[in-house]
Design goal:
Length: 535
């Protein structure tokens, strides 16, 4: 039985980061809504309560019955989780005199306590709360304080620990150490979860789930669906049929190139040119959410049509990963944006759904791909939206607009691949930690800009025209916006600081070579508050 940590999500923006940190400790975890604690927790070794946008005093605040696990399993409360435990057990939580937000330092800390083993003096932490704990429950003791927060951490000395800071974020310098102390030292994780173990476990589960059933997999050309295909192929072999749909909004030459890659992997792939149908159904549609829903619906229709040709097909497999599911429906029930492979599947679809990667983050998917022996160029490919360039064209979709965007994007992506940079220190460590192949020499690595960043793409502002001058003539054409972000899991992202000489060269080449574009902009917004894609 595989050990796991349960993380109960109370709606914090950083809940997924807690999960990432636990996975980095080679320990499997599941992030569940605060009110979905499993009936059978025989494989659970510990429980973490996340932060929340609510105060414990809010009428709509999320609440959980602590008796379901407290007293039987080790528990760690983080921020709201710490306040909720205190409030529920007779402590006191009050409005802080001023919002406690940003860097702080642990001025006092019990370094003999299992949670703080290995901590340095004056260790930096990150606070983010409006309420504060002013009294802890009877039988508990304070084990860490800052200048402004008396109960930065407390425990009952047995099985409950709580911190009012966020160990999961980068600015808590020894946050990983704290989580390791809890997950490994206190909960007793054997640290046996890895890409190799995931492959072994998932292949066995897929064999049991699917049996001799035939499966259709919708391929997109991206790393997620490609890894899902190879994983399924290992489990069920010839019973897997892959379908790669050309909706007319792929990147330049993508359909041809990806089909070749899949043939080299030995997959049974059917290429379907459905571009005419997609263009017709998207005609005059400008609303981003409607675009996604139409594309999702059309994908399902195409798969159903192909499924009827494959005798005995019972399953539709997809490369859905965890961030897709989080963005489609968050803990409050509000849709951020629909993903074609996670929401809105019609009841009349004749196939059951199989999602072997649904609990993985992107970097974990890449590690699984390497474990499966896949080619590196498929594994390191940037994320690309399922709806393709349709959500990178503002306004309605036409073949000519797609042509403009394909040409501009091709110049941009090729430029990123060809431009080499040397990295050292923390930048090099992060790139190597992401699994990018590179050799360290004299403390430096050399990689392409493409490998240094998480995702890049071009956006066509087709609802806007700008005046320009080319030669002696006035032009009135469209601008494009270049987007490049750094991230580890797509839940948060920062804009990439690309070199000026690179941006100047790419801008000049796009304007000179792409008919219909006379201005190039660069998007310097981060997520949050923006999303990575414009639509």
């Amino acid at each position: 039985m595989q050990q796991k940590i349960i993380i109960l999500d109370f709606g914090s923006q950083t809940t997924q980061l807690i999960g990432r940190r636990v996975r980095e400790l080679d320990t499997f975890c599941e992030i569940l809504p605060y009110n979905k604690y499993p009936e059978d927790d025989s494989d659970v070794i510990g429980v973490i309560l996340s932060g929340s946008p609510y105060s414990v005093h809010d009428p709509e605040a999320f609440k959980v019955d602590l008796s379901r696990f407290m007293g039987r399993l080790p528990v760690l409360g983080i921020c709201y989780g710490a306040q909720f435990i205190s409030h529920s057990l007779g402590g006191k939580v009050e409005k802080a005199d001023s919002r406690e937000y940003g860097r702080a330092h642990l001025q006092t800390v019990d370094k003999t306590n299992p949670l703080f083993l290995g901590f340095d003096d004056n260790s930096q932490v990150w606070m983010s709360h409006g309420d504060t704990i002013t009294a802890i429950p009877e039988g508990f003791k304070c084990i860490a304080s800052t200048a402004d927060v008396k109960y930065a951490s407390y425990t009952n000395g047995k099985d409950v620990w709580a911190v009012q800071f966020h160990p999961e974020v980068f600015h808590t310098v020894q946050g990983t150490q704290l989580l390791k102390n809890f997950v490994v030292g206190i909960c007793g994780s054997e640290q046996s979860w890895s890409a190799d173990s995931f492959v072994d476990t998932t292949v066995a589960e897929l064999k049991a789930q699917l049996g001799d059933d035939k499966v259709i997999l919708g391929l997109s050309g991206g790393v997620d669906s490609s890894v899902a295909a190879v994983l399924l192929h290992r489990a069920i072999g010839k019973n897997l049929t892959c379908i790669f749909v050309d909706h007319g909004m792929l990147r330049k030459n993508e359909f041809r190139d990806v089909m070749h890659d899949y043939e080299c992997l030995g997959l049974n792939v059917i290429g379907v040119d459905a571009s005419e149908k997609f263009f017709a159904d998207l005609a005059v549609v400008t609303d981003p959410e409607q675009k996604r829903k139409i594309i999702g619906r059309d994908f399902v229709e195409v798969f159903n049509a192909e499924a009827k040709k494959i005798e005995g097909a019972k399953w539709l497999a997809q490369g859905t990963i965890y961030p897709d599911r989080i963005e489609s429906l968050n803990i409050t029930g509000k849709v951020i944006k629909s993903h074609h492979n996670v929401g809105g599947l019609p009841k009349e679809m004749h196939l059951q759904l199989c999602e072997p990667l649904k609990w993985l983050f992107k970097d974990e998917v890449r590690r699984v791909g390497r474990s499966l022996g896949m080619p590196e160029h498929l594994i390191t490919r940037h994320p690309f939206p399922g709806p393709g360039l349709a959500v990178r064209i503002l306004g309605d979709i036409t073949p000519d607009k797609v042509r403009i965007l394909q040409d501009a994007d091709d110049i941009y992506i090729r430029g990123l691949r060809n431009y080499k940079v040397k990295l050292s220190g923390e930048e090099a460590r992060l790139v190597l930690a992401a699994g990018v192949p590179a050799n360290m020499q004299n403390g430096e690595i050399e990689v392409s800009l493409y490998d240094q960043i998480w995702q890049a793409g071009t956006v066509l502002l087709s609802t806007v025209r700008s005046v320009g001058v080319m030669g002696d003539e006035r032009t009135y054409e469209h601008p494009v916006a270049l987007r490049a972000v750094t991230s580890t899991d797509a839940m948060t992202a920062d804009w990439a600081h690309l070199p000026y000489d690179f941006m100047a060269k790419v801008s000049n080449e796009i304007i000179n070579k792409v008919r219909g574009v006379n201005r190039v902009c660069y998007d310097i917004s981060s997520k949050p508050p923006s999303t990575i894609e414009w639509e």
